[in-house]
Amino acid sequence: METKSIMIVGVGGQGSLLASRIIGNVLLSQGFDVKVSEVHGMSQRGGSVVTYVKYGDKVASPIIEKGEADIIMSFELLEAARWLSYLKKGGHLITSTQKLDPMPVITGAAKYPENIIEKLSELGADVISADALSLAEQAGSAKASNVVLIGLIASKMNFSDDVWKAAIKQCVPEKFLELNLKAFELGKNINS
């Protein structure tokens, strides 16, 4: 099998590391060679965080170059735009519609760009967007927006729901399991 690449991008504290663990767990359970690399920008301070997940028969390196990502999963709109050049032609950009103001916007030095999803689509990206934050709150916690997006990414990958749910059970503490399984279902059923 040809090596496939997934980039998970967001801002520190949004749960990208848990998302990469869940995806990696699913892929390992299906017999793939999996490499995960976590690149922590200024994650503690709301800075950009990127995680690479590569899988296939044999994966040499987790690093994803520009134009290589089959899927980019973004927890924040501006991060989706920032990393678009890494998306492969024909790849999927799955993004939350959440907006978190970066420091230049907070200080008034810049304005948050408008119509990001439309602009990304005009550039040729297959954009799949969802209000993951609202769905996570509906599931029981805003912190589960990462698992809402896991549900959305699951709808683009050919693995059974049982495989995804087993990975969530393995990666999420018991006391948060029910709400995360609900978040997964809400994400999975967005386009149903």
Proportion in helices: 25-40%
Largest sheet: 6 strands, mixed
The oligomeric state is single chain
Overall residue-averaged pLDDT value: 91
For the CA atoms, what is the radius of gyration? Answer: 16 Å
Total domain modules = 1
CATH class: Alpha Beta
Number of helices: 8
CATH architecture assignment: 3-Layer(aba) Sandwich
Unreliable spans are none
Percentage of residues in DSSP E strands: 15-25%
3D architecture notes:
The chain has helices at 16-29, 77-82, 103-106, 116-122, 132-139, 145-154, 161-171, 174-188; strands at residues 4-11, 33-40, 48-56, 69-74, 87-96, 126-130. Helix content is 39%, strand content 24%. The chain has one domain: 3-Layer(aba) Sandwich (Pyruvate-ferredoxin Oxidoreductase, domain 3), CATH 3.40.920. It has 192 residues and is of the alpha/beta class. It is built from eight helices and six strands. A six-stranded mixed beta sheet has the order 2-3-1-4-5-6, with helices on both faces. The two termini are 29 Å apart. It is globular. The longest helix is centred in the last third of the chain and has 15 residues, at 174-188.
Chart the SSEs and their pairings.
Elements lengths: L3 E8 L4 H14 L3 E8 L7 E9 L12 E6 L2 H6 L4 E10 L6 H4 L9 H7 L3 E5 L1 H8 L5 H10 L6 H11 L2 H15 L4
Parallel strand pairs: 1-4, 4-5, 5-6
Antiparallel strand pairs: 1-3, 2-3
Helix pairs in contact: 1-7, 5-6, 5-8, 6-8
